[in-house]
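quick q for whoever's on today - can somebody do inverse folding on this one?? i tried earlier but teh output was garbage lol. tokens:
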């Protein structure tokens, strides 16, 4: 079953314990908050973050259902506004002996606790536009995953972060995710997801520590007409709150003038047709209708049409491609209707059993965190995963990103600000004892902004000690 990118429910969890282990230690399934919008990495386990942040944005593992353009809240702060309980949130099978036992079990209910400590030293992080500091951070991150049978799971993570510099304030962050998947009735399959994230992190958009709350609700229904053809219906709602945060600041908008942060809401429905041509090749088409509003800011109606292809010729190569067009009609501004290209491509090549190379590219357009602005985000990158000496795991990533802020107060959506950045990350991890792991990492990112005070260059060195049961 394929689902539209902005309202897709990431419902499944991989059964392969090797992928499970990698998902916790190396973030091959996320672009990463540092490279996207965040300057500091989130707490390990928080918002699905792994123990080793990947600033370079390594592409998803082959088979990961993450190949559609315009992922939900791609333009929102932290780029993880809608965390989901996937492998990155689940405890790894550190024993290597099959499915992990729960620490506690009541009938069909299984409890998996986890905890981690992360130490970071970061240079050149902004605490205000044009002002940067070097800081040490200490992050404690407890979490729990509850599995209720094979269809329902609930995940909760907390991140408690302490900064060494007075220019930043200590934070407590929360992430919750409820997923119900795979309920079958004849040829029908139904699913539901609900997530909530409360975060307070430095963002490159604001060049400041910024409080945010993001909520997502999604429902899905699919009908298997036969073994090759599947029809899917998805509806979703995304809400981002920024104005209520007392720590939020007024930052540069169009032409360098002050601009306030804006809440946003998005409601979306989609229809998808998928066809499996053979065991190696599948594809389909999707159409969606959405309504987006900023509070305060613009209101718009979007229509999106895309085609998607998945090709797995063998055990080494896997490719997922998607492309289409979005038409956005503005209801309360001078901007005229505009067609925007959107696309996503993920390619993975497993050179050897424990050597994986990945390439990705994507472009999406979403409501900005600034009022009366859209964010057009384009990114490309490469990554590598390598197991060393049977125990160690090496992760490398490099990425390039361009973000344009488009003013909806002009008829032709003039670019009010443009950011270009690159990033590199390297991480090395190893299991310790039966349920523990240790990871060390280095990452560098730089961003050049057309608006004064928002460019930066930042390096991060750190280590994470994790425990999961």
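ok took a stab at it. sequence:
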């Amino acid at each position: 079953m394929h689902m539209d990118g902005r309202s897709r429910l990431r419902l499944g969890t991989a059964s392969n314990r090797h992928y499970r282990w990698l998902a916790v230690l190396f973030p091959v399934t996320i672009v990463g908050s540092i490279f996207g919008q965040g300057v500091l990495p989130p707490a390990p386990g928080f918002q699905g973050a792994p123990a080793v942040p990947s600033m370079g944005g390594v592409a998803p593992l082959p088979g990961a259902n993450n190949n559609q353009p315009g992922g939900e809240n791609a333009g929102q702060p932290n780029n993880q506004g809608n965390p989901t309980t996937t492998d990155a949130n689940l405890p790894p099978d550190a024993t290597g002996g099959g499915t992990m036992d729960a620490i506690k079990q009541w009938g069909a209910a299984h409890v998996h606790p986890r905890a981690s400590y992360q130490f970071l030293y970061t240079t050149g992080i902004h605490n205000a536009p044009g002002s940067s500091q070097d800081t040490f951070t200490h992050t404690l991150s407890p979490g729990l995953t509850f599995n209720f049978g094979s269809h329902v799971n609930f995940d909760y993570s907390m991140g408690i972060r302490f900064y060494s510099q007075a220019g930043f304030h200590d934070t407590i962050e929360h992430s919750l995710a409820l997923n119900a998947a795979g309920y079958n009735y004849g040829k029908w399959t139904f699913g539901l997801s609900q997530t909530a994230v409360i975060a307070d992190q430095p963002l490159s958009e604001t060049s400041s520590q910024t409080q945010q709350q993001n909520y997502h609700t999604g429902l899905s229904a699919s009908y298997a007409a036969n073994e090759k053809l599947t029809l899917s219906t998805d509806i979703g709602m995304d809400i981002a709150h920024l104005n209520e945060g007392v720590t939020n600041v007024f930052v540069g908008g169009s032409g360098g003038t002050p601009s306030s942060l804006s809440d946003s809401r998005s409601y979306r429905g989609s229809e998808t047709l998928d066809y499996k041509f053979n065991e190696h090749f599948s594809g389909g088409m999707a159409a969606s209708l959405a309504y987006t509003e900023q509070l305060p800011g613009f209101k718009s109606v979007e229509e999106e049409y895309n085609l998607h292809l998945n090709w797995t010729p063998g055990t080494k190569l896997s490719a997922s491609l998607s492309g289409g067009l979005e038409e956005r009609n503005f209801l309360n501004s001078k901007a005229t209707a505009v067609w925007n290209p959107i696309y996503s491509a993920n390619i993975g090549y497993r050179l050897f059993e424990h050597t994986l190379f990945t390439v990705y590219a994507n472009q999406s357009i979403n409501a900005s965190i600034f009022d009366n602005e859209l964010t057009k985000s384009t990114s490309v990158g490469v990554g590598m995963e390598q197991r060393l000496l049977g125990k160690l795991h090496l992760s490398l990533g490099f990425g390039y990103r361009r973000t344009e802020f488009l003013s909806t107060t002009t008829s032709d959506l003039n670019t009010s600000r443009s950011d270009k950045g690159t990033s590199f990350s390297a991480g090395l991890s190893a299991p310790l004892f039966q349920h523990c792991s240790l990871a060390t990492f280095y990452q560098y990112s730089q961003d050049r902004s057309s608006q004064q005070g928002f460019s930066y260059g930042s390096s991060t060195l750190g280590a994470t000690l994790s425990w999961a049961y």
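fwiw The longest strand covers residues 109-128. also The radius of gyration is 21 Å. so keep that in mind when u check it
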